[in-house]
Amino acid sequence: MLDKQFWETKHKESYGRYHKVTEFARFCYYNFMKDKKGKLLDLCCGKGADSIFFHNKGFIVTGMDYSSEGIKQFNETQKRYDIFLTALVKDITEPMQFEADSFNFVYSRAGLYYFTDEELKKTLSEVSRVMKSEGLLMFQVKSVNDKDYGKGKELEKDMYEDESGYVRHYFSKDYVEELLKDFHIVINEERNIPNGSAYLEVVAEKK
What we know:
The protein is an alpha/beta fold and 207 residues long. It contains six helices and ten strands, in the order H-H-E-H-E-H-E-E-H-E-E-E-E-H-E-E. The strands form two sheets. The chain has a seven-stranded mixed sheet with strand order 3-2-1-4-5-10-9, sandwiched between helices. Helix 4 links the parallel strand 2 and strand 3. Helix 1 runs parallel beside helix 4. The protein starts with a helix and ends with a strand.
């Protein structure tokens, strides 16, 4: 359901912004990753702020995003700070080129809620394939309790498109459990923001 041109325009319009590590990345690191090392795959990495944060903590990071403009700005930031991470322009609903059992961690902040149920299940099956046993999947998505839930054109259950063409798939805790039936769920918790935004924050271990 991703509109490539929508995201190219969005990243161009926000040039120079969103280069700071997110609270969710810090939460994952300090609660689940601080004493660990290994390879991390950042899905829908955007301009790479969280990827760079994990790189600076000692992880071997590969970032993937659908937007060539987002990856372009990611690479500009890397050049500015004289660092190197693998950053790929890639639709994550398509098969990944990585071998099985390649990554210790798969991470996605505010990236997985742009996809249909069918696309999510296909993507998570591929994520499971490229993860090592006992690896951690960590993601943040919009909750069905978010202030914008139900606004716009309904595309499928819990998925809406607003007038600008912006698509969001909202998650319930039960839906997370359904999607991750092949994982051991460590946390599946809602975070509410004073402005009315609501997210589910999920950490799950590959069985």
